[in-house]
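Bit of a strange request maybe. I'm writing a small parser for structure token strings and I need a real example to test against, not something I typed by hand. Could someone generate the tokens for this chain?
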Amino acid sequence: MLDLIEQYLPPSRGTVVLHWFSGSISEAQRAVDLGCYFSINSEMIGSERGRRLAASLPADRLLTETDGPFTQVNQRNATPSDIGQTVQAIALLRKASAEEIKGTIAQNLGTMLNSPADSRPI
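Reply from user aminoacidic:
Good idea to test on real output. This should exercise your parser:
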């Protein structure tokens, strides 16, 4: 996927959000270099590999998502109201407050939404 982004989608044509990214930390760094953002859900941070990845991502590239109904929280389908748990988990991983992470994620979303029309998320 990163090869395709690099070849066919220069940053001037759009912002890529990598949903449930499962690549390596070095692949994540390559994605960062390509201008990508990463949406994090509770299932991702449920594994050691996912926690390491989430902790390694630059704060200015973090977003959250539920991926409900495909993910589960407390043995039920995840809903948008579960984002707070994901934010709290990210905060613990990054040794930050939940409020700080929440603010960072909101700022990241605002940055993406306020980008020129030709570079909005795809």
